[in-house]
Design brief:
Elements: E1 3-10, E2 13-22, H1 27-38, E3 44-55, H2 57-73, E4 76-80, E5 82-83, H3 84-92, E6 100-101, E7 105-106
Helix pairs in contact: 1-2
Family: Belongs to the anti-sigma-factor antagonist family.
Function: Positive regulator of sigma-B activity. Non-phosphorylated RsbV binds to RsbW, preventing its association with sigma-B. When phosphorylated, releases RsbW, which is then free to complex with and inactivate sigma-B.
InterPro entries: Anti-sigma_ant, STAS_dom, STAS_dom_sf
């Protein structure tokens, strides 16, 4: 499965809209596009996961790396519009306590 990545800038926010699956095959592509955005001081990186219906541990690893980068570069990572099965992955791993995740959860199986 593929992952579509669309990045747009809105003031001091980079909006990253994802669609597809985040797995061992697509995670490197996501990391390559996401990490440079987190290196700009004062930047908010908002990742919209509304159209991501599957993510595995490699996807979680990308977001943990992005979070670490934001802490080092004085930027911010925010995840929004997660489908329930993707949100569950963040809850099980305890990442909801350390990553800013919008509590609005989309349906989906």
């Amino acid at each position: 499965m593929n992952l579509d990545i669309n990045v747009s800038d809105k003031d001091s926010t980079a909006v990253v809209t994802l669609a597809g699956e985040i797995d061992a095959y697509t995670a490197p592509q996501l990391k390559e596009q996401l990490l440079p955005l987190t290196k700009e001081s004062g930047k908010v990186v908002e990742v919209n996961l509304e159209n991501v219906n599957y993510m595995d541990s490699t996807g979680l690893g990308v977001f943990v790396s992005a979070l670490k980068s934001t802490k080092e570069n004085n930027s911010e990572l925010k995840l929004v519009q997660l489908q329930s099965r993707v949100m569950r992955l963040f809850e099980i791993t305890g990442l909801t306590d350390i990553i800013n995740i919008d509590s609005t959860v989309r349906g989906g199986s």
